[in-house]
Amino acid sequence: MKIERISEERAHRARVGAAACFLLTGFVSASFASRVPAIKDGLGLSDGQFAIAFVGLEAGAVVGLQLGGLVVPRTGSRRALTAVVLAFSYALLGPALAPSLLVLAASLFLFALLTSVADVAMNAQGVAVQRLLGRPVLSGMHATHSLGGILGATRRGAPAAVPRRRRPGGDGLRRRLAPLATLTGRRGGEWNVG
Q1: C-alpha to C-alpha distance for 152 and 109, rounded to whole angstroms
Q2: What is this structure's pTM?
Q3: How many Å apart are CA 178 and CA 194, to the nearest integer?
Q4: Domain count of the chain?
Q5: Which among 8, 30, 44, 155 is least buried, having the fewest CB atoms inside 10 angstroms?
């Protein structure tokens, strides 16, 4: 009897953990997507130049899916997911702080690579949780990813829709990131974050 209870408890924790990862990846991805115009404008890129940067994104996705297929079976979905979700979250800084087209393309490559490895690990973890629970739950986890997307787009997109002069403390992030501006070669007017 005690073994069943521990197993149920473990399955529940695994489900909550996997769902949290789906939520986080949806949030992070939508946060990036909602800032695409600001990133493009901040670097002064044409549509064609920005499309070149997105080649890095697509190439990273292809490589990441293959890498995920190699890493996840060797390390286990839980261990891979824990490591890659943390790295994936920080990789979002790359596109935001990229000082040039080349650095943007490289940072999008890394972001997509980590996103794809996380995707493989999350789905493997979701399948493992389904086995533990004995019922389908993966579709609910994918819905959690979509919820994260809604939250991320709302959190990052809504403030961007408000004109700067109306935003209370709109330059607060700009002031906090000023030391990074010096390191990346960006000057005051080039920051387009809010």
Answers
A1: 21
A2: 0.74
A3: 13
A4: 2
A5: 44
| Element at 39 (helix H, strand E) | helix 36-43
pLDDT, one tens digit per residue, over 13-25 is 888 988 998 999 8
* Total number of residues shown for the chain: 194
Are residue 19 and residue 90 in the same domain, yes or no? yes
CATH code of 73's domain: 1.20.1250
Q: Which residue has the higher pLDDT, 185 or 146?
A: 146
Report which DSSP code applies to 186: -
In contact, 119 and 25? CB cutoff 8 Å: yes
- Tokens encoding 117: 């490895």
Half-sphere exposure of 168 (CA within 13 A, CB side): 0
Q: Rounded distance, CA 28 to CA 17, Å? A: 16
Residue 176: domain span: 165-194
Q: How far apart are CA 121 and CA 77, in angstroms?
A: 5
End-to-end CA distance of the chain: give it in Å, rounded.
Answer: 54
* Cα-to-chain-centroid distance, residue 61: 12
The Cα–Cα gap between 87 and 75 comes to 16
Among the listed residues 62, 114, 66, the one whose alpha carbon sits nearest the alpha carbon of residue 93? 114
